[in-house]
Specification:
about 325 residues; D-Maltodextrin-Binding Protein, domain 2; 6-stranded mixed beta sheet
Length: about 325
């Protein structure tokens, strides 16, 4: 039964009045601060502007902006094999307003050199979205037309064949180092800061062979470059006549998922908002069109799945780096 005001003592009346008035006395933005997101989000793309990775990240950011209702602004931080995004992000507040792309190299480079982050302990793995398709390509005037002929050329000219890649410690680098070891050849690696630098280098004749993403497809179709092999487990549907490295005789497969990361310690509610919004981008026709243009498949993993993947991959990359003799000295 409700208590009438005349049944309350003075202290009870004042307490009740204060409780009713409290919300009105709070600053107008106090409740808005509980809503995430309430301002722009920074998404770091750890590659130069203009390459395939940058194009895809901008398409993801544009779609996520529509899902979240706030701008998702891409900030380029190229270098160190795509790990500068994680390096810059781990020092940010875990409030969901600073995110980064997580390329496979973040699980590998800490085994090769000193880094300021642990990819498992220092990162919230929000969601995995996409994967790369890697390929080995050469100039149209190269003295070989197949990967077998390239191996024969490298054996006849030991140490003289150079190839460009997207950065020391990246998957296009280590995949070819693994392939070279299995093929019994010596290739000289030339690092570039992502596809935006690598592709102009091979088109300009500065290198004869490259290992990178399939954003070189238009140049293959125009006849300026030649695809020797792809590095996935299956042939790429856009180039059904191009064999994989594995089916060509060398057991090397490189498939590279990537997703969105945030600083460790983020509120689970914020993580869920981000996960749901970025997952929804995979239904966006504009993003899917961009992925098709760069020959990138969707590879979705939930927060829990992506976290487990990170733990497994960090251990697996350690074994790969040690096998290739590239582990950092303690």
């Amino acid at each position: 039964m409700p208590i009438r005001p005349d049944q309350l003592n003075r202290r009870q009346v004042l307490t009740a009045a204060a409780a009713v008035a409290a919300p009105a006395l709070l600053p107008s933005g106090a409740f808005a601060q509980d809503k995430f997101p309430s301002r722009a989000i920074t998404l770091i793309a750890p590659w130069p502007a203009g390459g395939a990775s940058d194009g895809v990240m901008r398409a993801i950011a544009e779609s996520a902006s529509r899902q979240l209702g706030v701008p998702v602004v891409v900030e380029n931080k190229p270098g160190v094999g795509g790990t500068l995004g994680a390096s810059a992000m781990v020092g940010a507040k875990p409030d969901g307003y600073t995110l980064t792309q997580l390329p496979l190299g973040i699980y590998r480079l800490p085994h090769m050199q000193k880094m300021n982050f642990d990819p498992v302990k220092d990162i919230t793995h929000v969601v995995c979205l996409v994967g790369y398709t890697f390929a080995l390509a050469c100039t149209a005037d190269a003295p070989f037309k197949t990967i077998q002929e390239m191996v024969a050329y490298a054996k006849a000219n030991p140490g003289k064949l150079e190839y460009g890649h997207t950065g020391t410690g990246t998957t296009p680098h280590l995949a070819i180092e693994e392939f070279s070891e299995k093929a019994g050849i010596q290739l000289n690696p030339i690092p570039y800061k992502g596809s935006a630098e690598l592709v102009p280098a091979i088109l300009g004749g500065h290198i004869r062979v490259m290992s990178g993403t399939l954003d070189v497809a238009p140049h293959v179709q125009s006849g300026k470059l030649r695809l020797l092999a792809t590095l996935g487990s299956q042939r790429n549907k856009a180039f059904p006549n191009v064999p994989t490295v594995k089916e060509s005789g060398w057991d090397t497969i490189s498939e590279s998922p990537f997703g969105i990361g945030a600083p460790a310690g983020m509120d689970p509610g914020v993580t869920k908002v981000l996960h749901d919004a970025f997952k929804k981008t995979l239904e966006d026709p504009k993003l899917l069109e961009t992925l098709d243009r760069f020959y990138m498949p969707t590879i979705y993993m939930s927060t829990a799945e992506y976290t487990a993947y990170a733990e497994r991959t960090f251990k697996a990359e350690k074994a790969t780096v040690e096998k290739l003799g590239l582990a950092k000295k303690s």
